[in-house]
Each structure stands twice: as structure tokens, then as C-alpha cells.
What does this fold into?
Amino acid sequence: EPEVTQTPSHQVTQMGQEVILRCVPISNHLYFYWYRQILGQKVEFLVSFYNNEISEKSEIFDDQFSVERPDGSNFTLKIRSTKLEDSAMYFCASSEWDTDTQYFGPGTRLTVL
Amino acid sequence: AQKITQTQPGMFVQEKEAVTLDCTYDTSDQSYGLFWYKQPSSGEMIFLIYQGSYDEQNATEGRYSLNFQKARKSANLVISASQLGDSAMYFCAMRDTGSARQLTFGSGTQLTVLP
It folds into this structure.
């Protein structure tokens, strides 16, 4: 069964460093998403992406975040200058259509020291 | 504004028993979708079941069923014949026409299945 994959599973970085989180969505899906979950808290929407551009973003998704689809398979989230409060699990998700079920990847646990 | 409420931070159930996890929602839209996801201790988010606001029948997927009461704005997840592997965090989520491309999640219910 097709699934969303994410790499790395765990990333440790120093505050102020740039990180890139990678995702491979399900191959026939057209809509891609990033969510984050701070430890012990609810899952929060960051951004949605369709047709090579951002379609929606939340207040959390400020100028330090960016997303890109560099090729036909990868979808990335870049955090330019990490802060301690960026420590969280980051989930990538994809769906065939915007109103379709979103399937999540296994997540990348980001730890900022 | 959307809102998803899960009032049970933790639930216990005996193996092989059924359990209901509560979820209420708030939206002024007529068209919306309700989802349940399971998050085991390993951290991944697993899609379980979906209910559309216009669906007349309650959704079912194997041992999972969704008790959808539109007038009460509730979408409770029922797990029948609980198994030890059902122990996990369960999240209710909603998407409505005002934000078709994002899910709003509840705070989750930690389910523990006892042997």
C-alpha cells in the first residue's frame, strides 16, 4: 500500500541553524501539507501546497519557514534559523484532492538545542 | 471558527470490550468532514475513519465505527472488541469548507487497553 515517507526520522540541530525536512508524498496525490506537534500538544496545521505554490498557511508559518517541491517526488520544509520552540514532531501529509483524506507520514522529530 | 473538543484525556478499557471516544465539533458550515487518527507511542499518525457531513449512514471500518449525531455536533469513535494494540492516542479532526485544505485537530484521548 502506498505511503508517505519522511526523512530523517530524528534531527538534532543547534539553535540558529537551518534544517530541511524531507517528505515523499504518495505518488498520485496532488495536495501536500506540513503539520507539527509539540510534545504533549495537539497537531497544528502549518501549510498546504498545490500546483507548486502555497495554497494556505497558518500563523505559525512565518518567514523562517519555506516549502518547496524540488522535483517530481520530494516535498521539503525548510526552517531557516531554528529556535528552541521549533522542537516538535513535524508531519508531512498528502491527499489526492483538497477535500480528500490526508495520509500522514511517520514524522520527523526535530530537537533544537 | 472551527473547534474540536475531546473531553476525555485518558480512557481505560478491558481487552475485548467496546469503548467510545468522544468528539464534539463546532462549525457553521453545512459541508464538512470528520476524521479520526490513531497515534501509537511510535509517533506516526494513522488514518482510521472518515465521516462526511452529508453521509446518511454512520461510517464503519472493520472494528471502528463513527457514531455521527449531526444535530448534537458529535462524532464519537467506537472501537469494538478492543485489542492490546489499540492502546494509543486518538485524535478527532475536522475539515470544513472555510478551510478545505487544513485539518483542525482535537487535543486527543489516550486509550489504554488492559489485559
Summary: The mean pLDDT of chain B is 93. DSSP finds no helices and twelve strands in chain B. The interface with chain A takes residues 33, 35, 37, 42-47, 50, 91, 93, 95, 99-108 of chain B (CB under 8 Å). The longest strand of chain B covers residues 88-96.
